[in-house]
Amino acid sequence: MSLLAFSSYALNGVDAQKFLQGQVTVDTERLAENETRYTAICDLKGRIHFGLWLKKINPESFEIVVTQDQAEEFAKHIKKYGAFSKMTLSEQGAVFPKVVNHQTEFTTAETDISEWQKQAIMTGQAWITQATEHEFQPQELRLHQREGVNYDKGCYLGQEIVARLWFKAKPKHWLHLVQGTGEAPASATQLNNDVEVVNSIANDEGYLALVVAKPTALQELGIQVLELPEALSGDVARPQ
């Protein structure tokens, strides 16, 4: 049985879109309505603090899902930064994930979360939990390849560092799918100095995991690297 759980929130009010535009890495103004997108709220160092599935109902109404272990801190964050915005954050309760066309959607009907974890990992849908907050930059998780980052949008938390890495540098570590042996390592486990586990789940051969790693470090470990979907393949540098 999976210990992973999810909490849903509704953000409603005339300032909802404007507020989120200054928080998340995705461009909320360009976000299509009724489409769930995984995005992030970063800290001032450009690392992901909260990972969230965001659905825009209209510019004044958004549905937001976070992992349950981040929910309380997330709600405090929104209420702190949104204290002077005309909007209301309300908890909607537990929801359950399912993969639809390589994307995650949520329902109030109970689903097999372990099966979702397996499918999400195999399709490169890394997710942040309390164990991995402040660990990874969006680019390292291939979030831009999932359309969860817009590098041309205006200011948001951590934007300066996130944009600088994209336009002027290149990450040394990025997301890979691996098949390992033995017990599944916990999120945030360092398999060595240059390989860190984001998500993992046990399977018949040992475990599947999404790791942020240097490619050379994976070779040194001798761990089997599997292919991700084409949209998430290759390195993560800005195309020249």
UniProtKB/TrEMBL annotation:
<dbReference type="InterPro" id="IPR017703">
    <property type="entry name" value="YgfZ/GCV_T_CS"/>
</dbReference>
<dbReference type="InterPro" id="IPR045179">
    <property type="entry name" value="YgfZ/GcvT"/>
</dbReference>
<dbReference type="GO" id="GO:0016226">
    <property type="term" value="P:iron-sulfur cluster assembly"/>
</dbReference>
<protein>
    <submittedName>
        <fullName>Folate-binding Fe/S cluster repair protein</fullName>
    </submittedName>
</protein>
